[in-house]
Amino acid sequence: MTDFDPERFTLRQAAQARDDFAQVLEELDFVKAQLARLPTRRDQAFTPLRIMFGSAFSALRSFSAGSSYSGVIASEGQLWAA
Fold first, then answer.
1. What single string gives the DSSP state of each residue in the chain?
2. Is this structure's pTM higher than 0.85?
3. pLDDT per position in the chain (82 positions), as tens?
4. How far apart are CA 51 and CA 55, in angstroms?
5. Per-domain residue ranges for the chain?
6. CA atoms within 13 A on the CB side of 5
7. What is the 3-state secondary structure (H, E, C) of 24-40?
């Protein structure tokens, strides 16, 4: 095993090492960007609550819309085929 001596590198080897280092940094930036896109624990904790409240809101809205629609028709005294 040889000792590491930076003066022994040729210009070609130094350029190759520099290119390799730049590629590793680019890949590291890519991994950082992918990790930033992952949901946090807090996001994951609130997802079921959002689903429950969203479903309840949607059900109540559709129920109240149906009730008010039929109430309007009944109060006018007209029969409409829906």
1. -----GGG--HHHHHHHHHHHHHHHHHHHHHHHHHHHSPPHHHHHHHHHHHHHHHHHHHHHHHHHHHHHHHHHHHHT-----
2. no
3. 456 666 677 888 889 999 999 999 999 999 999 999 998 999 899 999 999 998 888 888 877 765 554 444 444 555 554 4
4. 6
5. 10-39, 44-76
6. 6
7. HHHHHHHHHHHHHHCCC
Cβ-proximal residues to 73 (8 Å cutoff; 6+ apart), any chain: 79, 80
User: Which residues, other chains included, contact 17 with Cβ-Cβ below 8 Å and sequence gap of 6+?
Assistant: 9
Q: What tokens appear for 57 in the block?
A: 């809101």
